[in-house]
Write a structure and sequence with these properties.
The complex is a heterodimer of chains A (474) and B (282). With 474 residues, chain A is an alpha/beta fold. Helices cover 34% and strands 16% of the residues of chain A. Chain A contains 19 helices and 16 strands. In chain A, the strands form 4 sheets. In chain A, strands 3-2-1-4-16 form a 5-stranded parallel sheet. Chain A has a 5-stranded parallel sheet with strand order 6-14-7-8-9. In chain A, strands 10, 11, 12 and 13 form a 4-stranded antiparallel sheet that branches. In chain A, α15 links the parallel β7 and β8. In chain A, α2 crosses α4, α4 runs antiparallel to α5 and α4 crosses α9. Chain B is an alpha/beta fold. Chain B has 2 domains: 88 residues, Translation factors (Elongation Factor Tu (Ef-tu), domain 3, Beta Barrel), CATH 2.40.30; 158 residues, Nucleotide-binding domain of ferredoxin-NADP reductase (FNR) module (Rossmann fold). Chain B is 28% helix and 31% strand. Chain B has 9 helices and 17 strands. Chain B starts with a strand and ends in a 9-residue tail after the last helix. In chain B, 50% of the residues are buried. Classes of the chains: A alpha/beta (474), B alpha/beta (282). Bound molecules: flavin-adenine dinucleotide (2 copies), iron/sulfur cluster and FE2/S2 (inorganic) cluster. The site of one flavin-adenine dinucleotide (FAD) has 41 residues of chain A, from α10, α15, α17, α18 and α19.
């Protein structure tokens, strides 16, 4: 394998991502990763071997032409790179920041066999940011109006993608969003320091320029039901992208004490309601001196790092399996550890103890060890008898997962759900049990990723278009 | 933006607003609420829809000025706008003909009781309403309640008007006099609802209360509104706000309502210091 000799193309280390210093960044909400300079981006892009059969592309859920856009960067054609990205991905500035590339495109990159894989995500971010920095927003031409009306429920990545695709095809699209700001988890969940809200706002502005109407403060199932939208308001098709917004609790004693938050509440207060700027903004949030976050996913890491930035001195992450099993992105775990997160792996909370006045005082944990693999293939954590101990805390954040909100299914007759409450939808088309009603994203799959939600949105848009066209001209 | 069509001071610290909200007005039913946000820096707060006009497309809110947001709302005038109003949220009251029902409202709780009493009366019930306040000057909506009830009893804690005593004492007294209630609704401050549940439990009357925990989204997404009912955790914004009065853990509700006392005081002081102009930076 002469190709793999050091000194060959691709053997250079990947370009480091410039980042804020850990001890500085844990005191502010500014973005942690600062992005490549043009020189760095070109240097990184030149590592690409331009494989004839690019494995990276097969690792990308939306099949971006990775060698195509990377080559454009290598040649200094940043505009061209951004255009290439947008062919397949409507939100490259978002995905370049939050996609788990280490499990997707970069995992399959051949450079990774011998050296480090190409930094595809960082390049994606670079090209998208570069385009944004030029201050232009090229708005593609939309097809002539079809006269068909589509309602999109929820403005997360799934809903935004469906809306953009269908607007381009000439349909009249309205997004209904329950909260006062569009973006879904991108605005209420993922913090500013990982995904600046101005980026999400820009993407929303883009789809509004395509002619999509965004109705905020509109709770489908309450303000109007799906039946009413279709039968009384003239919507020809509906896409449901309501996400996984229902917070799970552990059902252990003490969970309703003051000072116990769901991650959704904690992050919503900070991100959507801007509690980090209280009292300039009216919504408060508490962290005290010591915070324990329960869970090991991205949501837990975001909670840990938000708690630090809100001023907590000690922030624990309590996770029942070992670090190797943590579902959070490796990069985010490392970021959190650098910032001072105290990881209590193989620990499970058994109860939350009060101070006698209704407030949290301690969290009692039991130590765990890894037993036999379970159905998911991960080794099952089992408690070690008698190993209970307590940690003094002021605030506990429960980040053990979210499920589907039942509001839409419970108000839509005939809409079938599975035993967890997720809407049943065809994997290829997103079609539900009701004619003209499609669904995709976390509401169908359970909590997953931004790019999978977008992929589902894209497929559904295609199917909705076919459905509307098969009904003939309006 | 939702325009304030009409504003009226019912007492110096309780104001009534008629707000333009056609989507909500055509859909809302008794027992439901909205969440509003005054401006970009504002908090989201829940308020019950006290009345609605489906033809005019308006809803009526009755607001007690107890903190930063409610006082700031009080500085708005007719013609001003409220940035966000979302709803109708929560489960509507189950209305049927029970026979004789008691509708008990304390303080600001009279406002949410009103549409329920009216609907129960329209459904054929004999509605015996008992409303009360600390004193005469802060009693609200007496006329409305008269119209919505078959019979109205008014109490004040200090005896400055109507019957001297608490609404729950009056209810107990009526039962002693032979009133038989088939159903009862009680809405007001938590200690009042707890006392109300005590009365209806003693006399075996099926009854509901409407809970007012802290809320944010009002759609079941954050879990801040959790209450315990029959030993189980429920989200008041979607599972309620009404629950069986006999099964609610009132002490937990009271305790959770105090979570942000310190911050609420800080926000109010800041607001009052800058004469009501801070927080309105748009
Ligand atoms: C804290 C956090 C961090 C994450 N980090 C990452 C990451 O780093 N990388 C990654 O790939 N993924 C991450 N995820 C997961 C990712 O964000 C989700 O998988 C993705 O957002 C799902 O998109 P969606 O469009 O299905 O739903 P969502 O983004 O959840 O959006 C659903 C929208 O629908 C609205 N809605 C719900 N019900 C109604 C209704 N009845 N009427 C009207 N509107 C309604 C909601 O308000 C919301 O705005 C993270 C998730 C969280 C919570
Ligand atoms: C379902 C429901 C219906 C309600 N209907 C009415 C009504 O019709 N009229 C009325 O005057 N009041 C109503 N309330 C109470 C009203 O929401 C609070 O008085 C208001 O939020 C206080 O805000 P503030 O900033 O003025 O006061 P603050 O000083 O911030 O708070 C005072 C107290 O109000 C409660 N509170 C604070 N923030 C919230 C919040 N975001 N959500 C809920 N409670 C909060 C807390 O217990 C707090 O101690 C209702 C509450 C609920 C849950
Ligand atoms: S969208 Fe995600 S998976 Fe696809 S190339 Fe970009 S970073 Fe990789
Ligand atoms: S207010 Fe957020 S879940 Fe009820």
């Amino acid at each position: 394998m002469s190709e793999n000799k050091p000194g060959r193309k691709g053997s250079e280390p990947r370009q480091e991502m410039p980042r804020q210093d850990p001890m500085v960044r844990r005191t502010n909400f500014d973005e942690v990763a600062l992005g490549y300079s043009a020189e760095q981006a070109v240097a990184e892009a030149q590592r690409c071997l331009r494989c004839k059969k690019p494995f990276c592309v097969s690792g990308c859920p939306v099949e971006i032409d990775i060698p195509g856009f990377v080559t454009a960067i290598a040649e200094g054609d940043f505009d061209g790179a951004a255009r290439k990205l947008k062919e397949k991905n409507a939100l490259p500035a978002v995905c370049g920041r939050v996609c788990p590339q280490e499990d997707q495109c970069e995992k399959y990159c051949v450079l990774g066999k011998k050296w480090e894989p190409l930094a595809i995500g960082r390049l994606e971010r670079f090209a998208a940011d570069w385009e944004a920095k030029q201050g232009r927003m090229s708005v593609p031409e939309t097809a002539p109006p079809t006269g068909r009306k589509v309602g999109v429920v929820g403005s997360g990545p799934a809903g935004l993608t469906v809306a953009a695709d269908l607007a381009l095809l000439g349909h009249e699209v309205t997004i209904f969003e329950a909260l006062h700001a569009p973006g879904g988890v991108l605005v209420y969940g993922i913090p500013e320091f990982r995904l600046p809200k101005s980026i999400v706002a820009r993407e929303v502005e883009f789809i509004e320029k395509l002619g999509v109407k965004v109705e905020v403060d509109f709770v489908v199932g309450a303000t109007r039901t799906i039946g009413e939208l279709m039968n009384e308001e003239g919507y020809d098709a509906i896409f449901i992208g309501t996400g996984a917004g229902l917070p799970y609790f552990m059902n252990i004693p003490g969970e309703n004490l003051n000072g116990v938050y769901s991650a959704n509440e904690f992050l919503t207060r900070s991100n959507l309601m801007k509690a980090f700027r209280f009292p300039e903004y009216d919504t408060p949030v508490k962290v005290g001196k010591t915070v324990a976050v329960v869970g090991g996913g991205n949501v837990a890491m975001d909670s840990v790092r938000t708690a630090m930035r809100l001023g907590a001195e000690n922030v624990y992450c309590v996770y029942r399996r070992s670090r190797a099993e943590m579902p959070a992105r490796e990069e985010e775990i490392e970021n959190a550890l650098e910032e001072g997160m105290i990881l209590k792996e193989l620990h499970n909370p058994v109860r939350i103890i009060d101070d006698g006045n209704g407030w949290v005082k301690q969290i009692e944990c039991i130590k765990m060890k890894l037993g036999e693999p379970d159905a998911s293939g991960r080794r099952r954590p089992v408690p070690i008898e008698g190993s209970e101990f307590t940690i003094d805390v002021d605030v506990v954040v429960i980040a053990i997962g979210q499920g589907p909100n039942p509001l839409v299914p419970s108000t839509t007759e005939g809409l079938e759900t599975n035993k967890w409450g997720n809407i049943m939808a065809d994997a290829e088309t997103g079609l539900t049990s009701l004619e003209g009603v499609y669904a995709g994203g976390d509401i169908v799959t359970g909590a997953a990723t931004v790019i999978l939600a977008m992929g589902a949105g894209r497929k559904a848009a295609r199917a909705i278009h076919e459905y509307l066209m098969s009904k003939g001209q309006a | 933006m939702h325009k304030i069509i009409k504003k009226e001071a019912l007492t110096p610290e309780i104001k009534l607003y008629v707000v333009d909200a056609p989507l909500i007005a055509t859909k809302v039913r008794p027992g439901q609420f909205v969440v509003l946000r005054l401006h970009e820096q504002g908090e989201r707060i829940p308020l019950t829809v006290a009345d609605f006009d489906r033809d005019e497309g308006t809803i009526t809110l009755v607001v007690a000025e107890i903190g930063k947001t409610t006082k700031e709302m009080g500085t708005l005038d007719e013609g001003d706008g409220i940035l966000d109003v979302v709803g109708p949220l929560g489960k509507a009251t189950h209305i049927e003909n029970y026979g004789t029902v008691a509708c008990v409202g304390g303080g600001i709780g009279i406002a949410p009781v009103f549409p329920i009493a009216r609907a129960l009366k329209a459904a054929g019930n004999r509605v015996v309403s008992i409303i009360g306040a600390r004193c005469k000057d802060i009693l609200i909506l007496e006329d409305w309640m008269k119209g919505a009830s078959s019979e109205l009893h008014v109490t004040t804690d200090d005896g400055s008007y109507g019957i001297h005593g608490f609404v729950t004492q009056q209810m107990e007294k009526l039962i002693g006099e032979g009133y038989k209630f088939d159903f009862a609704v009680g809405i007001g401050p938590v200690p009042m609802m707890k006392a109300f549940a005590g009365v209806t439990r003693r006399h075996n009357i099926k009854s509901i209360v409407s809970l007012n925990p802290i809320m944010i989204d009002g759609t079941g997404m954050c879990g801040v509104c959790r209450v315990e009912v029959d030993g189980k955790t429920r989200f008041a914004c979607v599972d309620g706000p009404e629950f069986d009065a006999h099964l609610v853990d009132y002490d937990l509700l009271l305790s959770r309502q105090t979570t942000y006392l310190k911050e609420e005081k800080q926000a109010l002081e800041r607001f009052e210091k800058c004469g009501g102009d801070c927080g309105k930076h748009e």
